Structure formats: structure tokens, C-alpha cells
Amino acid sequence: MVFSSYIFIFWFLPLFLVCYALTPARYRATCLTAASYLFYGWWRPEYCLLLAAVTLITYYAGKRIAKASSAKRKSAWLVVSLVFTLGMLGLFKYASMLSLWADNILGLFISPAAGSEHVVPILDIVLPIGISFFTFQAVSYVVDLYRGDAEEAIGLISYASYISMFPQLIAGPIVRYQWIADELRVRTHTPEKCFLGAQFLILGLAKKVLLSDCFALAVPAAFGVEQPGFLAAWVGVMAYTLQIYFDFSGYSDMAVGLGLLIGFNFPQNFDSPYKSASITEFWRRWHMSLSSWLRGYLYIPLGGNRLGRVRTYVNLMLVMLLGGLWHGASIMFVLWGLWHGILLATERALGDRHPIGRLPRPVAVLVTTLMVIFGWLLFRAEDLGQAAAIFRAMWLPGYGSPINQGLERVHSIILIMIPVCMFICWFSPNSWQRTSRLTIGQALAYGILLCLAIAAVLATKASPFLYFQF
């Protein structure tokens, strides 16, 4: 189910909120869990079994870790839970890619059997949506219990509501148990929280259906033709740069808003990342919960910056490579992670001597944005050949194609929206800075924005958020 779909906005959400409000406080975790499983199972009901299995294994492993009488027993139960959760993630997310790679490599030395095209059977496993997010949440729970950074969950239903909570189940933020442990026990519901939640919800919906989905129409100008022209390449790449920005920002806002409506305060996950003056700053602002998770559960355990300069650079590169692979089983995601790893390691190595750090901040922001845009080109391209073709078109005007080839189906309004929205990304306050106590004027503005967003929902087919695929 998609937040920006007709069925979610007009059926699921209103019915859930009514049921939740009428449910006695002691049973609201059960109500939330049931609604979350309905939400998750709407696409493929059988994957609710996977969600339940991850929940049960990590819950009971967590109980054993909390009650273990020795460090050896604690370690054993931690290993059991990690092998299961990360094993399931690896199976569903990477088995198809690994079988294809094995077939390609072995095919160089072994001929396929008669009647077969492949040496190794190619696995075609449907990726459960949101598996990377709820798996990482479950891992954080058992690891924090092992470290002594979190208390044991108060009950299976409460823990199940934490793992499956539909506002952030599919695409984050990745919420650590201790961040909302108190709210899992007792939540407050106030008019102020509801108004604030509604503001986030409306802003997020508008970003998705009025901006992100609009920019998606122009992305094929670069990525939908064999050899785009100079203008088409820039328009398509910039459209994707803005599509993924407003798509993920919109989802993050809606998740926070929905959380507030049921009494949860989720952490900020998106903080105007295109305002960053360095790649290090970018990763403090983009997908903040993932950056925090990678730092807390990969970078620091690998030694962080405590084992010397060379090891620090290696750790940065390794974490970003794994972060890229987390997004999907594709060499392009790996290259995207490698690109950001190189940039982060370079900034760490040069420190104050880094050229970008010596530039005026507006210029540094522009240069950083260009580096991020190149990263999005790698991230979105289907293969290295397509990325190279688009890159050539962007920096060698007229190379092999008319400069406007690929722009035929791009509406002129999008060409105007691209610079306007980049200006908004650079200079406008973000959702967390805009939301405040409502005045009559603000309420009217939000009402108009909601009407426009609802009109867009009714007029178009709902498209999934980009991070659903990760």
C-alpha cells in the first residue's frame, strides 16, 4: 500500500485512526500491529510470514540475551539472531544477483547442459518491500540489548508493533528501540501533536504527488533514450536529482506526520541535504537514520577512526560500499557507494586543506551538489554503458546527438520547475523549520495545498516511493 494512493488516504488511514482512537490504551499496540500487517500484506500477504519470523526470532533472541548468565551465551544468541535476520536479507535481496554472477563466471569454463542456457540456475526471487528497513531495525534491537544500550521489550505485541509500525515500515526512518521505548509503553495524544502531524502529512503528500511524480516524467529524457543530447541529459539527470529528493523527503515527512498522529515522535531523517558544503555534511543530512545506523553498527565496530589514518579511510570506503549494496543488488549501487566513499575518505584525509573547504560556502554548496548529481547518475543508470553515454552528453555538447534529443516529450513547465525547485532546495526552510503552531492563514494555506495534492491523487495513478525498492 502506498501513502499517496487513493485507498490509503480515503480508506485505510481514516478507518485506522477511528479504530485506534476508540481502542482502549492497553490494546492500542494490538490495534497498531494488526493494521500494520494489513498494510504490509496488501501487496503480497505471504510476506507477512517473513515479517513475523523476523519479529519472533529477534524478540526471543533478545529475551535470551537479556537473561543470559554469561557473555558466551549472550554472544551465541546474538549470532543466532544475526545469522537469521541478515541471512534472510541476503537470500531475498542478493541471491538472484549472486546466481547470475556465478553463471557468468562458470560459463567461461563450463558449457551449459543440453537444453539449458545457464550453467547455474538463475534465481528469480521477488524482493519483499521494506525488508532492508525492518531487518536493520531488528538488528539494532538485539545488538543494543547485547551492548546494554537498550532495555528488553515489554512484551511480544509491543515489540511486534515496533518492528511492523506502518508509518515507517517500508522506507524508514530506521528507528532504534530505545528512541521510542517510553512511547511504546505510554503515549500522549494532544491536539498540538495532531496538528503538527497533519502539517507534516500534508507537506509530505504534496512533495510526492505535486513535485516528485512530476519530475519523474522528465527522467526518461536522459535515461529512456539510447544517446540523449546535451540538454536532454542535463534535464533528465536534474529531474532525477529532484525526483529522489522530493520523493524521499515527502515520504520522511509523511512517516513523521503519521507517527505524531498515533503519539510517536520519530527522529528527523532528512535535513535539506542539498544545502551541504561537503559530502561529509551531505551524509549528516541525507537519510540521517541510515547514516546513524551505518556509523553505529558498522563504522565504529570496524574501528572507526581509532586505528590509524589508513584504517579510517578503509573503514569509510567499506561502509559506503556496503551502504551502496544495501540499496540493491546492482553494480551501479556499488559504484555509487564507492564514489561517495572516495569523496568521504578524501575529505577526511585532506581536512582543512581540502579545496572545497577553502571556497566561499555558496560555491562549495554548488560544487558539492554537482558531485552528488554525478552520484545520482550512477545510482539511476541501468548499467555503466548508459551512465557513460549520459555523462558524455552532459559534458561534451553535441557528442553524437542533437543537443535536444530526448526532450520531445518533456513539458515546458518542467523545464521551469527544475531551476525553481533547485532554488527551493538550496534556500528554502525545510519541513521541520516550517511546521509550527497553526495560524488561520497557515491553516488556509495547508488546506489549499491538501486540495491540490488530493486532486493530483485522484487524477493520476499512484506511484510507489523510490525507497520502497530498497
Structure description:
The protein has 470 residues and is mostly helical. Helices cover 68% and strands 0% of the residues. The chain folds into 2 domains: 6-186, no CATH class; 193-278 and 354-469, no CATH class. It has 20 helices and no strands. Helix 3 (47-67) runs parallel beside helix 5 (131-147), helix 9 (191-216) runs antiparallel to helix 11 (230-261) and helix 11 packs across helix 18 (412-427). The protein is globular and about 65 Å long. The protein starts with 5 loop residues before the first helix and ends in an 11-residue tail after the last helix.
Could you tell me the number of beta strands?
A: 0
Gyration radius over CA: 23 Å
Number of helices: 20
Count of folded domains: 2
Helix content: 55-70%
Q: How would the global form be characterised?
A: globular
String of helices and strands: HHHHHHHHHHHHHHHHHHHH
Largest sheet: none
Which residues sit in consecutive blocks of at least 5 with pLDDT less than 50? none
Distance N terminus to C terminus?
A: 15 Å
The fraction of residues in strands falls at under 5%
Overall pLDDT confidence? 89
Structural class: mainly alpha
